[in-house]
Amino acid sequence: MRDQLRVLRHGLFVQWRVFRGLHTWRTWTFAWLSRLLVQACFYALIGRMLGSQEQVDYLLIGNLVAIMAIDATVVVLLAVGERQSGTLALMVAAPATHLTAYLGKGLVHLGSGVAASTIAFLALPPLFGVALPWPWAGFVPLMILVVGVACYCYGTCVAAFVLGFPSARWVALNLSYLVLMTFTGVNVPTSFWPDWVRALTSVLPMTHGLAAIRSFVAGGPLPGVFADLALELAVGAGWIAVAALGFDRMVTRGRRDGTIEFAS
């Protein structure tokens, strides 16, 4: 366990240095964060055009949480980047599991997503007349973190399978978070979809976590909120288990046929 945590910590430190090389506080705030805020405002304005404050509330809250999912699924690009730069083999040789070595590299993006979603949650609702149950609304960022962890596990799972198809990385990234925005209740209720689609969405991250946040903001019963958050964590655990199997399969095959260092 000590080696696992050490590798996780060093992976986080390395990626933090890379992240700082890509972003200053100005570029993160005025380029990345502002883009996400505008996206959330776009959907909220659709609700306003429909003349329904209820629709404004629904669309804004859903898209505030979805901001986090966009950042969390960026982890899909990191795995392919390691393979293309020739460092994937070094990560596999780390004194920890393959998945641990990789997980630490993406935690910076998870933190960025949670920070962006929290800032949006604090800044945008007053602009659109969305009532929040202060001071209890201060617990919503913790719920966003739970949803973010589940989405990060989901993105890691997608990354484990995209490693074998590096040219599909951008398609996989866009599809991974667009699927979440479409089917998990961000813009339309999950009840809109046929029963078989709803069954599939129940194993997607954000479905249960977003339902918990909506219920909490609306003053719903706390046992139901905690139950949904527990389901969200269970879904995340399922995705990370599949990710572990996917990474192990990729590493085993790469060692067998000597392709682990290849970029394609």
TrEMBL record:
Keyword Repeat included in the entry's annotation: no
Domain ABC-2 type transporter transmembrane: 23-215
Predominant subcellular localization, coarse grouping: membrane
A Pfam family it matches: ABC2_membrane
Keyword Transmembrane tagged: yes
The organism's place on the tree of life at top rank: Bacteria
Signal peptide residues on this chain, from the entry's feature table: none
Compartments where located: Membrane
Topology class, membrane: Multi-pass membrane protein
Transmembrane segments: 25-46, 58-80, 115-136, 142-163, 170-188, 229-247
Keywords from the UniProt entry: Membrane, Transmembrane, Transmembrane helix
Protein name as annotated: ABC-2 type transporter transmembrane domain-containing protein
